[in-house]
Amino acid sequence: MPLSQRWTLTRYLIEERRRFPNASGDLNALILDISLACKAIGRIVSFGVLGDSLAPEVTAAGGAVNVQGEVQKPLDVLSNEIFLRMNEWNGHLAGMASEEMETPHQIPGNYPRGKYLLTFDPLDGSSNIDVNVSVGSIFSILRAPQAVLDSGREVTVDDFLQPGTEQVAAGYAIYGPVTMLVLTVGNGVVGFTLNHNLGEFVLTHPNLRVPADTHEFAINSSNSRFWEPPVKRYVDECLAGKTGPRGRDFNMRWIASMVAEAHRILMRGGVFMYPRDTKDPSKSGRLRLLYEANPIGFVMEQAGGRASTGRQPVLGVKPSSLHQRIGLVFGSKNEVERIERYHHEPAEREPCNPLFAERSLFRD
Ligand SMILES: O=P(O)(O)OC[C@H]1O[C@](O)(COP(=O)(O)O)[C@@H](O)[C@@H]1O
Ligand SMILES: [Mg+2]
Ligand SMILES: [Mg+2]
C-alpha cells in the first residue's frame, strides 16, 4: 500500500476520537507524547555504544540498584528520564510510576492535576542491550482518582493500585530491526511501524489478532526445578510432542525480553510463561503487575488472546503494592486456558505422569 494511503498515529487517534464526540483530546495528546518518548529511546538504543558521544549521560548514569534490587543499566536510567521529561509538562497527567523509581513521580508545579496516571517500564529486556537483541518500552494509562482531581493533592501509591481492567490504554514500543508501536485503547490492537524518513509511526497492522491455537511456547527452563506441578505438567506434555498426550510437536523460544516475546505472539501466536515458582518465596513471580503484566495483558486480551496468573485473569488482580510481582501466562487463548485448567485440577495428577518425567528434559 502506498505510504500516502496509510494513517499516521496522529490520524488514527483523530479517527478514534470521532467515536467519542465529547472527548477532550487529552488521551490522544498523552499517547502522542508517549510515542515521542519511545521514538527518542529507540533512537538512542539504535546508536549502541556509539551513542556515548551523542549523550554523555548514557555512560555517566546507571550502576545504581533500583527498588527491584536490580542493577540499573545506563540506558534504563536514561529511558526513565526521557519518559518523565516528555510527559511531566503536558498537563494530562496527575502522576507517573516506573520500574526504575521507588515512589510515584509527582507532576511539578501547581497546575490543576491532569486526568490520567501513567505507569511504565522504560526499557524492558535491558539485559539484552549489550547483545543487540530487541528491547522495548511498556506503558499503561489509568484514570486518576476523582479525589485527586477534586483536591489537587499529590498522588499516592494507593492511587495507582487499580486492577488492569481499569486501564484506559496500554501498549509497548519494540526497538528491533524495525521500531514499532503497538497500542490498544480498548478497541482492538493496532500496530504502527516507525518510518525513519518521516519520523512518524505509520499504521501497518490495523487489526492484530492472536491465533487461538499454537505449537510454540516460551519459558525460562533454567527455573524448571522451581516450577509448580501444573507448569511442569504443561511443559512436559509439550516436550513429549507427538508421542505424548498432546499428539503433536511443539517448538520452544526464550528471548528474555518480554516485549519481544509478546510481539512474536501477537504476530503468529504462542504462549509465554513466567509463572509463580518456588525460587524465592518472598516473590510471587518475576514480572511486575502494574507496568509489565497489566499492559501486556490488556493488549493480549484485546487481540483475542488471554492473560492470566495461571489461576485467574491477570487483569482482575487488585494490586497490593506499586512494584508487586506476579506469575504471568499469556498468549493463544486455548493454551492459556489449558494451563489455567491444570492449575485448578485436583493434585492427584501430580507429580507429572512418570512417562513424561522419565523423558523430561526438565525433571528434577
Ligand atoms: O532473565 P530471566 O529470568 O529469563 O528474565 C527475563 C525477563 O525479565 C525481563 O527482562 C524483566 O524486565 P526488565 O528488563 O524491565 O527488568 C523481561 O523482559 C523478561 O521476560
Ligand atoms: Mg521489564
Ligand atoms: Mg525495565
Automatic annotation (TrEMBL):
The EC number(s) this enzyme carries: 3.1.3.11
HAMAP family: FBPase_class1 (MF_01855)
Fructose-1-6-bisphosphatase class I N-terminal domain mapped to chain residues: 8-206
Pathway: Carbohydrate biosynthesis; Calvin cycle; Carbohydrate biosynthesis; gluconeogenesis
Organism: Rubrivivax gelatinosus (strain NBRC 100245 / IL144)
Highest classification ranks of the organism: Bacteria, Pseudomonadati, Pseudomonadota, Betaproteobacteria, Burkholderiales
Domain Fructose-1-6-bisphosphatase class 1 C-terminal: 210-343
Summary of subunit composition and partner proteins: Homotetramer.
Subcellular location: Cytoplasm
Predominant localisation class: cytoplasm
A Pfam family of this chain: FBPase
This protein's name: Fructose-1,6-bisphosphatase class 1
Residues annotated for substrate binding in this entry: D124, G125, S126, S127, N220
Cofactor: how and how many bound: Binds 2 magnesium ions per subunit.
